[in-house]
Amino acid sequence: MLVHAASIQDADGAGDLLRRIKPLYCWLRTVFADSICSRVAALLACFLLGITLIIVGRIPGTKGFVVLPRRWVVERTFGWLGRWQRLAKDCEHLPEVSEAMVTLAMIRLRLHRVAHPNRKRLPAP
Fold first, then answer.
1. pLDDT above 80: residue 53
2. How confident is the model at residue 9, as a pLDDT?
């Protein structure tokens, strides 16, 4: 995970993220991304790290809301994170604090799933 300043576009920060996680997850071979990640920085990082980048774009000719393959996973995760008050609004001054809050939120979510395997919903913090 990598939290960066709002002035950095996702596609420009993708290279930093991939360089950071590739040593941790050496088995990583494929990443799915939005069409914004077809920029040179993300493409170059994937090429140098030996990762296949699959761009999940909107299906031509569709109108309105359409569920795109693999893209819903990211939106679902943002929904989970948005249930945390400190992550619902960007109030932090340092990206490191936001990154720590995301880590804590995901740890809590995982612990809840381990402790209550048959429950579907996590109570709001």
1. yes
2. 79
